[in-house]
Amino acid sequence: MHGLRGPVVQELVLDQRFRGHGYGRQLSLLLARALPLDDDQLLIGTIHSDNVTALQSALGAGRVDVGGEILIPL
Predict the structure, then answer these.
(1) Which residue in 10, 14, 52, 70 has a CA-CA distance of 20 to 30 Å to 24?
(2) Using CA atoms, how far apart are residues 44 and 6, in angstroms rounded to an integer?
(3) CA distance 12 to 48
(4) Is the separation of the CB atoms in 23 and 54 below 8 Å?
(5) Dihedral sign, CA of 70, 65, 36, 4?
(6) Per the confidence metrics, is the pTM higher than 0.85?
(7) Residue 28: is it exposed, middle or buried by C-beta count within 10 angstroms (0-12/13-18/19+)?
(8) Which domain of life is it from (predicted)?
(9) pLDDT band for position 12 (50/70/90)?
(10) H, E, C per residue of the chain
(11) Which residues contact 35 (CB under 8 A, 6 or more apart)?
(12) What whole-number distance in Å separates Cα of residue 51 and Cα of residue 57?
């Protein structure tokens, strides 16, 4: 098999009432621990560059920023 193997999580969204309490960080940790990943599988996520809170939450949960994206207008 070629390419990256693993589950795909499209989006995690917290209702406005539950934001700002650290739930996003805990949700990321619980999800990562609950997914049955083999040694050759990855859990990869993306965060919109304007979503600073989500980025801080992800980094606080132990995720690592391994790249970035630059959009250049044509």
Answers:
(1) 70
(2) 8
(3) 12
(4) no
(5) positive
(6) no
(7) buried
(8) Bacteria
(9) confident
(10) CCCCECCCCCCCCCCHHHCCCCHHHHHHHHHHHHCCCCCCECCCCCCCCCCHHHHHHHHHCCCCCCCCCCCCCC
(11) 7, 43
(12) 10
Render pLDDT for 13-68 as a digit per residue (tens, 0 to 9): 889 999 889 898 888 888 888 888 888 888 878 888 888 888 888 888 888 887 77
26/12 Cα distance (integer angstroms): 12
Confidence of residue 1 (pLDDT cuts 50, 70, 90): low
